Amino acid sequence: MITGTVTSIFGDDINTDDIIPASYLQQSTDRRFFKDYAFEKYDPAFRQRCQQAEANIIVAGANFGCGSSREQAVYAIKENRVVCVIARSYPDIFYRNALNNGLVLITLPDTSSFRLGDELAIDLDAGTVENRSQGTRFTFAMPPEERETFKQGGMIGRVRAHLEEILAARQARR
Amino acid sequence: MGQTMVEKIVSRHVGRPVYAGEKISRLPITKLFFNDVIGPPAIKGFLENFSDLFAKYGLTPQVFDPQRVFFIPDHSVPAFAIAIAEGIKLMQAFAKERGIAMYKEGDGIEHVVLIEDGHIVPWDIVLGTDSHTDTNGALGALAFGVGTTEAMYAMATGHLYDFVVPESIRFELSGALPTGVYAKDLILYLIGTMGAGGCSKRVAEFTGEGVRSLSMDARTTICNMAVEMSARTGIMAYDEVLADYLKDRARWPVEPIASDPDATYARTVHVDLSALEPMVAFPHKPANVTPISQVQEMIARSQREPTPDFCPVEDDTITDAFLGSCTNARYEDLVIGAQVLRGHKVHPDVNLIVIPASRKVYERAMDEGILQVFIKAGANVESSNCGPCFGSHMGVLSSKSKMISTSNRNYKGRMGSPEARIFLASPATVVASAIEGRLADPRKYLT
Question: Distance between CA B432 and CA B321 in Å, rounded?
Answer without folding.
Answer: 10
